Amino acid sequence: MKDRKKIMNYAFFIGCNIPAHLNQYESSARAVLGRFNIDLTDIAQFNCCGYPMRNIDHEAFVLSSARNLALAAKKDLNIMSLCKCCYEIGRASGRERV
């Protein structure tokens, strides 16, 4: 399988909870996706998805996620997130105006 061409590449957003509480989820996702020849690009500048701020400061909530979308777009990548909250917020903030 080593000589098979990578067929997809995603910006890999692991959020806050996964590295703090579920690091095995990240490592297993990387292993499985690697077997399917899917590249995952880590973007060091990613920040929190904004979920913790959702009921405190709506603008900060949306802009936090929008920044992550912009960082991935700058590299011409879609984002893959393992966290259901991060996924939904990223999806919603891509449609919302502040």
Brief write-up:
The chain is built from four helices and three strands; from the N terminus they run E-H-H-E-H-E-H. The chain has helices at residues 17-21, 23-35, 58-74, 84-93; strands spanning 8-13, 38-41, 78-81. Helix 3 (58-74) crosses helix 4 (84-93).
Number of helices: 4
Q: How many β-strand stretches?
A: 3
SS class: alpha/beta
Widest beta sheet: strand line-up: 2-1-3
- The protein's oligomeric status is single chain
Q: What is the radius of gyration computed over CA atoms, rounded to a whole number of angstroms?
A: 14 Å
Mean pLDDT level: 85
How far the N terminus sits from the C terminus, by CA atoms, comes to 46 Å
Question: If you had to describe this structure to a student in words, what would you say it looks like?
Answer:
With 98 residues, this protein is an alpha/beta fold. Helix content is 46%, strand content 14%. It has a three-stranded parallel β-sheet, with helices on both faces. The longest helix is centred in the C-terminal third of the chain and has 17 residues, at 58-74.
